[in-house]
């Protein structure tokens, strides 16, 4: 059969914020739609097999993303970013500009071209499955009953991403929490800080109601720190005692229901103050501490599952030098290490479902359909790590990175890894020469090595490879 012919209407052409597309669709294929950041695009590959079983034909991926890069390693890409389009139209450069997930989902939902794309696809398949980085209220295309989200409902995503709600949940269910207060507005936040600073000798951790990767949080040493960061931000806020010299582990899980929660891994996060930079697996924390972290996350996942949350989530904690654990937050979305965890599980246990497959089963069947406790990970002396290379100032990328292995290749044949001399390092989603990055993501370094220290060295090597490609604008 011939390929789809999608000719946007005049109205679609007028309203678009599309800066790039390379669609080549075929009527013989069914399509999975991915909506979200480029860094988690690779998770879609794990959904091909269950969707082939569902559609009984070939399945391809269409990716709708906000990340405007010079090159894309995948087909069927649509890049939607109003600010990138505006900036790129003014000169010859590609402009990568950060955009809030909620604003991006609104652009997607309001795009006539995307609306017509969905309508055309539904003429050729009875259901469109949509895989999202994070389901947002602003995404409204799923009001059509034939468009189905692989992941938790948006109202539950909002509920469990609320910093104040997370704190109340943890405290009410007996999890160890930091000395904290909820402030309704900036004036109340300043008052609480003034009252608490005599007891909180190391300062305060302050977080806005919503935010990813520490972007809406602060380690505050003074009231002016708080006012400089949050004076134009609406409350509520969560303010907590700052505990110095703490480790920052994160636990990845999937919830199907109250009784079925899969705990995938515990990683040590690489942090820059409150901002997330990367992760290393396995955690170097004591085994007893790791087991308690898993128990706390299992408890939270069960609570979320009982509330109808079906999908991937993560929990962040801090651990003091004396091994005291404190709950920090829930991430009700596909967290940073989900792809690497999936590749690792697939390498060690090829017959078991991966994390995206478990999420798909949870959403479509309400159960994992398998005893997930049997998915026990044996590290075999293997470690892996990721690092997100981000810039705080505008940079121009002046050269590309030479060809490196694909991420999935790093996780193959792990039994040979301890004897290998060549380092397993790759840089994923590098934005490409000629791109201006207006703060934010330059690329993602991934490595697999024999131990934790080797991972950290390899990450530094990969980070240097990225930084060597940029210069100030």
What does this structure look like?
- The protein is an alpha+beta fold and 473 residues long.
- The protein folds into 4 domains: 10-150, no CATH class; 151-178 and 243-378, D-amino Acid Aminotransferase, Chain A, domain 1, CATH 3.30.470; 179-241, ATP-grasp fold, A domain (Dna Ligase, domain 1, 2-Layer Sandwich), CATH 3.30.1490; 382-473, Alpha-Beta Complex (Aldehyde Oxidoreductase, domain 3).
- It is 30% helix and 27% strand.
- The protein is built from 14 helices and 22 strands.
- The protein has helices at residues 10-15, 48-55, 82-88, 101-110, 112-122, 154-161, 163-172, 186-196, 223-230, 287-306, 338-348, 355-365, 407-410, 452-467; strands spanning 18-21, 30-35, 59-65, 77-80, 94-96, 128-132, 147-150, 180-183, 204-208, 217-220, 237-241, 249-255, 261-272, 275-281, 311-319, 325-331, 383-391, 395-397, 424-428, 435-437, 440-449, 470-472.
- The strands form 4 sheets. An 8-stranded antiparallel β-sheet has the order 16-15-12-13-14-17-21-19. Strands 1-4-3-2-6-7 form a 6-stranded mixed β-sheet. It has a 4-stranded mixed β-sheet with strand order 5-20-18-22.
- Helix 8 runs antiparallel to helix 9.
- The longest helix is centred in the middle third of the chain and has 20 residues, at 287-306.
- The chain starts with 9 loop residues before the first helix and ends with a strand.
């Amino acid at each position: 059969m011939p390929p789809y012919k999608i000719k946007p209407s005049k109205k679609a052409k007028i309203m678009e914020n599309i800066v790039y597309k390379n669609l080549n669709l075929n009527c013989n294929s069914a399509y999975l739609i991915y909506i979200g950041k480029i860094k988690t695009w690779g998770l879609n590959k794990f959904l091909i097999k269950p969707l082939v079983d569902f559609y009984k034909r070939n399945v391809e991926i269409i990716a709708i993303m906000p990340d405007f890069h010079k090159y894309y390693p995948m087909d069927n890409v649509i890049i939607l970013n109003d600010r990138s389009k505006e900036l790129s139209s003014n000169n010859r450069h590609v402009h990568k500009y950060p955009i809030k997930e909620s604003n991006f989902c609104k652009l997607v939902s309001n795009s006539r071209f995307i609306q017509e794309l969905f309508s055309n696809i539904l003429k050729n398949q009875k259901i469109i499955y949509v895989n999202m980085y994070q389901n947002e209220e602003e995404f409204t295309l799923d009001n059509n009953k034939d468009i189905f989200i692989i992941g938790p409902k948006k109202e539950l995503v909002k509920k469990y991403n609320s910093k104040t709600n997370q704190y109340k949940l943890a405290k009410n269910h007996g999890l160890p929490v930091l000395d904290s207060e909820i402030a309704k507005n900036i004036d109340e936040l300043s008052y609480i800080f003034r009252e608490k600073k005599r007891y909180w000798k190391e300062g305060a951790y302050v977080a806005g109601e919503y935010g990813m990767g520490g972007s809406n949080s602060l380690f505050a040493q003074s009231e002016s720190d708080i006012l400089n960061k949050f004076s134009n931000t609406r409350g509520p806020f969560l303010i907590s005692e700052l505990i110095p010299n703490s480790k920052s582990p994160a636990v990845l899980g999937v919830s199907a229901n109250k009784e079925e929660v899969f705990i995938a891994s515990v990683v040590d996060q690489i942090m820059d103050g409150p901002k997330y930079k990367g992760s290393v697996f396995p955690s170097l924390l004591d085994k007893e501490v790791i087991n308690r972290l898993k128990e706390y996350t299992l408890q939270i996942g069960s609570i979320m599952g009982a509330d109808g949350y079906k999908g991937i989530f993560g929990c962040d904690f801090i651990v003091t030098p004396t091994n005291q654990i404190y709950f920090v937050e829930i991430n009700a979305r596909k967290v940073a290490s989900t792809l690497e965890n999936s590749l690792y599980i697939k390498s060690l246990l090829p017959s078991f479902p991966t994390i995206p497959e478990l999420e798909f089963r949870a959403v479509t069947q309400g159960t994992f359909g398998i005893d997930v406790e049997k998915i026990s990970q044996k590290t075999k002396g293997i470690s892996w790590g990721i690092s997100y290379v981000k810039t705080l100032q505008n940079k121009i990328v002046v050269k590309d990175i030479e060809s490196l292995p694909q991420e999935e290749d790093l996780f193959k044949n792990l039994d040979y890894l301890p004897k290998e001399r060549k380092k397993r390092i790759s840089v994923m989603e590098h934005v490409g020469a000629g791109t201006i990055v207006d703060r934010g993501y330059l690329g993602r370094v991934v490595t697999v090595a024999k131990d934790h220290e080797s991972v950290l060295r390899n990450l530094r090597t990969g980070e240097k490879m990225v930084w060597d490609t940029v210069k100030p604008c």
